[in-house]
Amino acid sequence: MLEVKLNWNVYLSGEIHTNWRDEIYEKTKNLGLKINFSGPVTNHKDSDDCGANILGKEELKFWHDHKGAKLNAIITRKAIQNSDIVVIKFGEKYRQWNAAFDAGYASALGKSIIVIHSDEHQHALKEVDAVALAVADDSKKVVEILRYVTEGKL
Known about the structure:
With 154 residues, the protein is of the alpha/beta class. It has helices spanning 20-30, 44-55, 61-82, 97-108, 126-131, 139-151; strands at residues 8-14, 35-38, 85-89, 112-116, 134-136.
């Protein structure tokens, strides 16, 4: 039997208000999976304010956000381009429009996409789900998928 045993680069996109990334990281580490993780800046204030803090303050919120979005896009583009798999979590509290954009970008690049969201968001995310290779409702299932694709083990 052929053993899978591949090294993977996985980008963890989506909501930044819970510790789901840490859960995936810790569980895959405990399983000994050979995965390199990357993700966005998860400090919400730093992510929102980076452009204005570095490039100069803006009176209008639009330009404040515009500067920050562009700096964050530098990270996101590079990380998604370098990824083998993009995991995108849509949380309950906020709408993650940026995560939907990440899904579109990853899809355009032909990346393998795993989406996490509750059943409540199935209709709203039907287009995102349509390009995903897997749709899960929790991080534990994502870890099981990562174990299967990296080691061929159930």
